[in-house]
Specification:
The chain is an alpha/beta fold and about 350 residues long. It is about 45% helix and about 15% strand. The chain contains 14 helices and twelve strands. A hairpin with a 7-residue loop joins β10 and β11. It is globular. The two termini are about 25 Å apart.
């Protein structure tokens, strides 16, 4: 379902504005001089550094009359490093922690330490275990459904006799199970899953090595499509196919709407990606963090209309943002319209002819 980020954002803002008057008598536990700790998991997923961090930083500043700050750390795909960074946030006595966990289970003890220190923790993008106060992400099962549906649609009448390879994400990321569950709901019975891999720490290098194994086992010409859980791995999968001598790349899925992925889509190398509106996810996370610290329970409740369970907690207050499938047919109506990228960003000299061919100018 193609839902505009701007439409969603207006809806979310409207919900908050609608209750603002009723919450004006609430006495905030803190003023605007707050510190939000932000822990992101890796730099291979380009959206984290390019979008999530700056968007959250900007939104916190705007919500606090530029008095609030964001203390930021990136774990570089290391759970041990993220644990050290988490402890540093606690020692620094930040007011709230937003964490996108490298390892959702391993982080639970750090979440508990923050809880013991009186610091609320909001899981961001990936559902962390432990006593978290809220969760902000997307409908991750829907992400997988959108990807799986795209493969079945691309294969058409030949789908049921077509062999595909599944390149799943990291088992340490709870979203991986949701992506996989959603994808399998569309793929099971509709295609032949010839090989399936889980990818340690979402590393493209691991995905590339596994794809090489799949090509050797299944046969290059027998692979009709590849389910790749994200764009970083999709690029690695495509590289492996090229190096094996593929004259035409079969449909390959992705997620995150990375610039390189969009350029591959324009050129016909990658079939689709899942665009998860970063603006709304980041804005909602910043608003939740500030509302939690300032004790504005009505705003907090309005921003968490959903509920999810983790292996350790039940009925976690959540905000789940819708997602959009992006192909070469709707790049202009999605990521360009929402200001994520410009035509100039995507249509560099290398891709100018491909952009012209699909009317992207």
């Amino acid at each position: 379902m193609a839902v505009s980020t701007s439409t969603l954002l207006l809806a979310a803002c409207g919900a908050i504005e609608g209750i603002a008057g009723s919450s004006s008598s609430v006495s905030p536990t803190k003023g605007d001089d707050i510190t939000v700790g932000l822990l992101l998991p890796d730099k291979d997923t380009r959206r984290f550094e390019k979008f999530d961090y700056p968007l959250i930083k900007e939104r916190v500043a705007s919500l606090t009359k530029k008095k609030g700050t964001v203390r930021y750390a990136n774990a570089g795909a290391s759970a041990a490093k993220q644990s050290r960074q988490f402890k540093e946030m606690i020692d620094a006595k930040v007011d709230v922690i937003l964490v996108d966990a490298v390892d959702a289970k391993a982080i639970s003890s750090d979440v508990q330490k923050a809880k013991d220190a009186g610091i609320p923790v909001i899981a961001y993008d990936r559902l962390a275990q432990g006593p978290i106060d809220a969760y902000v992400s997307h409908d991750n099962e829907l992400v997988g459904q959108v990807q799986g549906r795209a493969i079945v649609g691309a294969l058409g009448d030949k789908a049921k006799t077509s062999k595909i390879v599944m390149m799943n994400g990291s088992l340490a990321d709870p979203n991986t199970a949701l992506f996989k569950e959603g994808a399998l709901s569309e793929l099971d019975g509709n295609v032949i899953i010839a090989k399936q891999y889980d990818t340690r720490e979402w590393l493209p290098s691991v995905a590339k090595a596994n794809m090489a194994k799949a090509i050797q086992s299944v046969g290059l010409d027998n692979i009709a499509a590849v389910y790749s859980a994200n764009d970083g791995m999709a690029g690695a999968v495509i590289d492996a196919l090229k190096e094996a001598g593929a004259s035409k790349i079969p449909p390959v899925t992705g997620q995150d709407a990375d610039l390189a992925a969009l350029q591959r889509i324009v050129s016909g190398e990658q079939y689709m990606t899942v665009y998860k509106p970063f603006l709304l996810e980041a804005d909602n996370a910043a608003e939740l963090a500030v509302a939690k610290v300032q004790g504005r329970s009505l705003e907090f409740d309005a921003l968490t209309p959903d509920s999810v369970d983790s292996p350790t907690e039940k009925d976690i207050r959540s905000n789940l943002v819708q997602v959009v499938a992006v192909t070469k047919d709707n790049i202009k109506e999605t990521v360009i319209r929402d200001g994520v990228y410009t035509v100039k960003d995507i249509c560099t000299s290398q891709y100018a002819a491909d952009c012209a061919a699909i009317g992207l100018s």
